Every structure is written in C-alpha cells, then in structure tokens.
Amino acid sequence: MKxxxxxxxxxxxxGMAKKAGKAIVKNKKKKKSRLDEIMGGLKxxxxxx
Length: 49
Known about the structure:
mainly alpha
C-alpha cells in the first residue's frame, strides 16, 4: 500500500508537520521582500531582550 505525502506527514505526527509548515511559510515571507525580513528581525530582536 503506497502512501502519499500528506499521509506520511500524518503518520509522523501533526505536530512535526505543523512545525515544518511554519518554517516553509517563514522562508517564503523572507523571500517576498527585504522589508518583511527587517520587520521580522526587529520583532525577534524585541523578543530576545
């Protein structure tokens, strides 16, 4: 029985799938524009303090 990618992710666990999905979304947003990247850097900088 073959499984498609979605089924494999379900087997691995929804938690891992969500983390991977969020990482992909972050990478796409960074590529969209440098402004988003700078804003993201400021936000993460505030959190670090």
